[in-house]
Amino acid sequence: MAAQQRPLSPHLQVYRPQITMVMSIMHRITGVFLAFGAFALTAWLLASASDNDTFNAFQDCVASPIGKIVLFALVAALVYHFFNGIRHLLWDIGWGFEIPQFYRSGYAVLALTAVVTAALAFLAWNAGGAA
């Protein structure tokens, strides 16, 4: 008996991106990025426990333009992951499973992420200028 060709399940190229799909993928990506950020935090702590030259070299790295971009990205990822995690916790208690609530909570997470990240960047920029 010949093997029957069955259709494969649809992949990302078949589906039109929707906010629910994009936010789920971004939640996973930010989680991985934050894991690497935890390694950077550990390196900073080790550098601070080391001698002054090591700590100053690490601080110079972080103060470079690329270091500031990475720090901003880490803050944005942390804020997004935090708010989207709250959204997931609300789903765990049974709230927000209707399609309009999916979209409202998704846009709320995006708006809160933008506002809080901008506020933290503003505070960090002003704190850095005052020192």
Task: List the defining traits of the structure above.
mainly alpha, 4 helices, 3 helical TM bundles of succinate and fumarate reductases, single chain, 131 residues
Gist of the model:
This protein has a single domain (20-130), classed as Fumarate reductase/succinate dehydrogenase, transmembrane subunit (3 helical TM bundles of succinate and fumarate reductases). It is built from 4 helices and no strands.
What does this structure look like?
- With 131 residues, this protein is an all-alpha fold.
- The protein has a single domain (20-130), classed as 3 helical TM bundles of succinate and fumarate reductases (Up-down Bundle), CATH 1.20.1300.
- It is 79% helix and 0% strand.
- It is built from 4 helices and no strands.
- The chain has helices at 19-49, 52-63, 65-92, 99-130.
- Helix 1 (19-49) runs antiparallel to helix 2 and helix 1 (19-49) packs across helix 3 (65-92).
- The longest helix is centred in the C-terminal third of the chain and has 32 residues, at 99-130.
- It is extended and about 70 Å long.
